[in-house]
Design brief:
Helix content: 40-55%
Number of domains: 1
Shape: globular
Order of helices and strands: EHHEEH
Distance between the termini: 42 Å
Strand order of the largest sheet: 1-3-2
Structural class: alpha+beta
Strand content: 5-15%
Number of strands: 3
Largest sheet: 3 strands, antiparallel
């Protein structure tokens, strides 16, 4: 039987910041600037689309600000 790795659709702010190799403070700045969109389930439950984070990374070129 083969094991299938399931990638998460949504990640929290800590994981998203790690995916971008930035601090959580810098991550929240990107969110407040509208560069990253949040998925808000409730006032305290906020997640971010993992594919959007990956797309942000792949769309950036060396020397280009996020």
């Amino acid at each position: 039987m083969s094991e299938t790795t399931i990638q998460p659709l949504l990640v929290n702010a800590e994981v998203a910041a790690q995916m971008l190799s930035i601090s959580q403070r810098s991550f929240w700045r990107l969110v407040s600037e509208g560069r990253i969109h949040r998925v808000k389930f409730s006032k305290r439950l906020i997640r971010f689309r993992a594919d959007e984070i990956a797309l942000l990374v792949s769309s950036q070129r060396e020397g280009t600000p996020a």
